[in-house]
Amino acid sequence: MAAAEATAALWEAAVVAASSTGGDSTTVFSICVFTAVLCLCLVAGHLLEENKWVNESITALIIGCIVGAFIFLLSKGKNSRILRFDEQLFFIYVLPPIIFNAGFQVKKKQFFHNFLTIMSFGVFGVFISVAIVSAGCYWLFPKVGFGKLDAVDYLALGVIFSSTDTVCTLQVISQDETPRLYSLVFGEGVVNDATSVVLFNAIKNIDITRLKGGVVLKVIADFLYLFATSTILGATIGLSTAYVLRALYFGRHSTDREVALMALMAYLSYMLAELLSLSGILTVFFCGIVMSHYAWHNVTESSRITTRHIFATLSFIAETFIFLYVGMDALDIDKWKTAKSGFKTSAGIFGILISLILLGRAAFVFPLSILSNSMSGNSEKAPITFKHQVVIWWAGLMRGAVSIALAYNQFTFSGVTLDPVHATIITSTIVVVFFTTLVFGFLTRPLISAMLPHHRHREEATGGRSTGSNSPKDDFILPFLSDEDASGSGSGFMQAKRSISMMLERPVHTVHVYWRKFDDRFMRPIFGGPRSH
Amino acid sequence: MAAAEATAALWEAAVVAASSTGGDSTTVFSICVFTAVLCLCLVAGHLLEENKWVNESITALIIGCIVGAFIFLLSKGKNSRILRFDEQLFFIYVLPPIIFNAGFQVKKKQFFHNFLTIMSFGVFGVFISVAIVSAGCYWLFPKVGFGKLDAVDYLALGVIFSSTDTVCTLQVISQDETPRLYSLVFGEGVVNDATSVVLFNAIKNIDITRLKGGVVLKVIADFLYLFATSTILGATIGLSTAYVLRALYFGRHSTDREVALMALMAYLSYMLAELLSLSGILTVFFCGIVMSHYAWHNVTESSRITTRHIFATLSFIAETFIFLYVGMDALDIDKWKTAKSGFKTSAGIFGILISLILLGRAAFVFPLSILSNSMSGNSEKAPITFKHQVVIWWAGLMRGAVSIALAYNQFTFSGVTLDPVHATIITSTIVVVFFTTLVFGFLTRPLISAMLPHHRHREEATGGRSTGSNSPKDDFILPFLSDEDASGSGSGFMQAKRSISMMLERPVHTVHVYWRKFDDRFMRPIFGGPRSH
User: Fold this and answer.
1) Any idea what the Cα angle at residue A234 is, between residues A228 and A239, rounded to 5°?
2) Domain ranges, ordered by start, for chain A
3) CATH of region A87-465
4) For residue B141, what is the DSSP state?
5) Are A244 and B43 an interchain contact pair (Cβ–Cβ within 8 Å)?
6) Which residue of A55, A221, B50, B251 lies most exposed, with the fewest beta carbons within 10 A?
7) Residues B137-177: pLDDT tens digits?
8) Most B CBs within 10 Å, among A15, A40, A46, to test the B interface
9) For residue A174, which of A368, A380, A391, A381 has the smallest C-alpha distance?
10) What is the pTM of this model?
11) Is there a contact between A43 and B309 if contact means CB atoms under 8 Å apart?
């Protein structure tokens, strides 16, 4: 209630200030309220951390809602938001730190060990999910009296409701307790987001009147091209940063300059990718991975601590900002007025969308997990058990900021729509995001406890088995072994034979061993990195 | 030259992208170029660091100029800048981190020991300087054929050319080598900036037709009121942050949350001050001081390292951004076309302004230094020698971003002016900023070497003498002594007598001792801080 009174006082102050000095104060006032509410979220999130039902996203959503309601009341029903949703703001300023931080903090070994599974989930999974959601909407929407959409709009709906909310998921699954699960769900989420954005742009440009069978292939080819070029761009920028930091040895003079250079180069990678019409998300993600592998080791100790926390903090603020915004935006009365659809239609649309999300995700998680299990066969990897599959399915059901941003991008013109059909889709998206975040998010932690009751201990055991090199000790043994192999000249044939048999038995492991060799011999001397021997 | 080619390639890419997808790409392109050029500045600044003639500001200015020239050539003479100067951008996003960092990093003991001198320089100095520059412009401008200004414009000119550029100065004087000089020049710069902004706002609102003798008094009263309220607001927010961090003990859970809370609260202090029409600069400066004194000690070790560097890095990027921008803006052809004034008039205006800046600063630095010396008498403080006075005078001659921002604010409408007189003032301001930064900035390091040839050793000696408690050891002895005094009950009379004689002999020192007592007994138990015993 103290917050409410403060808001009321501020609102009065802003009204007075705005009327006396013109429009500038409105911006100042908005920033003030947002900053104050962000602080409130931080404190509330901290106080609720011990609670196993509530996470930070839910807190921010609810606080955003409450603040929106107060603004709504104080402005006498005129509006509930103080900033208009701007996809540019979201895609240019808020998303890059989140994704870069994800790449920077991800446990690279886990990520690359599960690379194939992650990619199949993140790419083919999205294709399957989009197909199911689009077809389902096309088939079911007219049955609840809502069917005036273009074919492109149905495809857009499919994409909008196929992007997992990585942010919310990460707050529920712990990287230390369940490393493999974390790596699968998180990795899928990142690739998933990227696939959605790429697919969305592809769909927007499709000429629906000349739709042929080749279009699907062309979308897939486009995706692969974008994936490759974006990855290369990200890796190149990451490597240049590492090289500059190493060659010029910045730390001699200034920690601040090192930190600034890393942050700016990371941001540059995202913006360059956007400028060249590539996927900024993928670029900045791989830039983060490369930077944490090379550049991070070339800087001073205090730069290391600072960068680790600076990126995490920025990402944290950006995430909270998004949920807060969605919470405030939910009460925007204009959209609800424009939507005009009756309660029955709205409830029908909502039910259809939720069912399709549940179905669309189930349709790829279970088959692809079984495929992944059979592919790895009796190799070193533990299979993804049915219980794990259920958790993966459930943890990816939440829809978040990317869905909202895509929906606004497709169905509004700079945050405003006058078309009742489009307004209905926007309001439905908000309701779905709210429902999935609150209800599914609320139930995830208890579900994980129920499905994986001793996951803390079990994962430690299976984790060690599944990756083959989970302990730091193994980290040092692997390259050491590979170096021994390499230095034993004359045993070329034996080495080749061993390599081939290894390759057949444990493909991912072998690739990893070769990568480590290459890394130690060629990459690290140029770009820097941890000295492993 | 590689940079030039890259810029050319990017420009082509941007033109293609902008024409195919609309206006959004222009923003992306601008951000890209700015980020890339910022990176370039960082590397160039690093490479030139050993050079005693060039500092980071000069590097950024020159690089900005070169990039501006290339954009000018590539756009075939149409424009030289890719972002329009926006005072809002400057005052809302760029300035707060610089000033907060200044407060956060300043050596508090030195600052408060020289408090009276700093305040007299920063407040009365500016008043004297404004009077001289305004009167000089009024008297001399018609003599070079330029005299169509209102009385308010002359006063505005006085304020614009009286604000020292703290940023550039700090890069030249070292806090470790010459602590007292640094503290005087830096402290003056901050107060100076604040006084200028406050004075400027006061002048804009003056009804010049009803100008009476009381106006000057009213401006001074306004200033004192603003100073007091802004300081209180900043200190209150800083203390609340410290209290929250201490009471909830954030570090138990998350470093990122601590860092985010500190950064957001600092920003909130600035924005709240702006919202309440106080001086954001002063508020955020004192918030920084309070946070570094209390809040910083309540967080985990890694939060301490992170916050120290995160604020320094943000400030560093913001500073480089400003100089880069000014460099790029210098070649904006529209303004030069609009200005229309002949070479003779331009040269005359430039000469007058530079002379007035030199004179206006000399008119308060030397008298006020002598006053400060005679005030402290034969107390513990070393007098400000004539050589120090010359360095103080010289180091404050540079004009920078605040001057530019105030000039744009007064003489343009969102960065554009069609009035030739106003355009002339804008171009003159840019030329003066350029000249002072390049020429005066260029000569400052050699001047300091010449005036204080062994300043490294001398300052250590006088520094120790002047503050009385410069070494960390003294830090611990002082409160220990004062506590002994307090615990020795019954010796009240002796204590009072000693206090009074101390007060008469060494007023600042005594205030400091009492402050330490108060701090240890009441403040630190509530708000946290270093444990001194």
Assistant:
1) 120
2) 2-74, 87-465, 473-527
3) 1.20.1530.20
4) G
5) yes
6) B50
7) 988 888 887 777 778 888 888 998 988 877 667 666 777 77
8) A46
9) A391
10) 0.79
11) no
